[in-house]
Structure formats: C-alpha cells, structure tokens
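Run log, item B.
One chain of 263 residues. Sequence copied directly from the ordering sheet:
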Amino acid sequence: MATQLETYHARRAEAIASMGGRCADCGSTENLHIVKRPGTTEKFTVSNIWSREPVTRARLYSLCHLLCGEHAKAKMWNKGSLKHGAYWAAYKKKCPCETCEVYRKENSAKRRADRAAARAAAGLPTRQPPKPKTPKPPKVKAPVAPRPRPTFRPTEVRTVRPFNVVTDLAHLNGRKFPSVIALREALKRTLQKHLGSIPPANGPDRLYDILVQNEWVAPLGNSIIIKLPSLKSDRQIWQERRETERQANADLLAASEVLNAQD
C-alpha cells in the first residue's frame, strides 16, 4: 500500500502530465506550479485536489494550468486588491514591480525635499556641514623597560621528623570508621599533612599493617575503631578536665566559707 507522500507525488505527476508539462507563459519545464486559470469562478484549493475522486480531479485539472516559479510569483503579486504604486505595496509588502520601485524613489525624494524646506523655514542650514577632521597625532610607542630576570632561590630543604604512630595518630584515637577504605584515606591525609607533600603509594598500607600487627585496630559492630596505647580519647580528656574544674571550684568555695567563718 502506497504511503500518503507517494500518493501525493504520483497524483501531482499525473496532473502535470495532463496539463502538458510546460509553463503556459514561457514553456519552461522546471520548477512548475499548478495554479488556477485566470477567470475561473469555481472556488477550490489546489492543495486539496489530490484527495478528490478521479473524475473530480480530472475536471479540476482542466480549470488549472502550469506556471514556472518566476511567472507564478509575478501572478501572486498581481492578484487580489493589492494597489501597486502605493505605500502598502511598496513598503509593507515590498513589491518588486517597476511601479512600486518608482513610487519608492519618488517618495524618498519628496521626503528629502520636505526636510530641507522645514530646516530652511527654521533658519537652519539645509544640510549639516561636515565636521572638520582633526589630524590624529602619530602613535609613538613608549620604550619598554626590559624585565628583570628572575632570581632563583635555592630550594629550601625541609627536615621531616620521623613519624610516630602513637603521637601522630592521636587525633584518630577512639574514632570509628565504616570501612577499611575510609581508615586508609584518613591515614593518607595524616601522612600528607606530616610530610607536606603527597605520601608514597604504599604509605597508608604500611601504617595500616602496623596498626593491625600491634592490635591497635579493633572491630566494633560494622565499624572499625582505633585504640592506641596510653592515650585517651577526646571525651575522656574533656571529662577529666571538667572533673578537675569542679574540684577546684569546690575547694575555692570551701576556703571562702572558712574565711567567712573566721571573720
């Protein structure tokens, strides 16, 4: 079954063949358009012919003829109530015919004359004098001072103290990690902060092996916790500090009460 597009092209080729296959004005066979014949009174649209019955299509073909692209465009400009040689056709529709072209030239000349008369009535010069051109001074390039050559300082040698697992990992003591990967990332950041540069690739693995060998890593449920020897967690330090402050306040209060009793 043929598609709609194939049906359209087949019936259009049939219509062009039935109309002679040539432009009715110049006999051209390229870029043909199917248009109504002048004087046709029946109302129909050319684009709707293809969906009609064969008998109806053959009757409507007789009411149309072929025009090339140039003559079809000329007929489009000349149809309807478009008045050539007027403002609407010349400027709004931009009609390319000779009548509208003459109207545009005459209208432009009339507008220039009206502007000149209005300026003369106001005591202004009919044409603005050109502005005097002041010669531009030649461009003189300022001398560019040579850039000083950079002085290279000797690279400072940074002395790195030996890494102490117990003291340098004190901030990780008592901290929980969800996985071994997270723990190794924390060890990598600690090494980078200690060295001041990117640590070697096997640095975190060696640290993790040391923690495992000394049993300083313990599983806690689904997490991993670091327990370093002879070190207290931040919470323990905070609790001891708070207990010390309470004891000091209590001693101070007792001493003040003794002094008040003596007085």
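Observations after the first pass:
- Residues 87-121 form one domain.
- The CA atoms of residues 80 and 89 lie 12 Å apart.
Flagged for discussion on Thursday.
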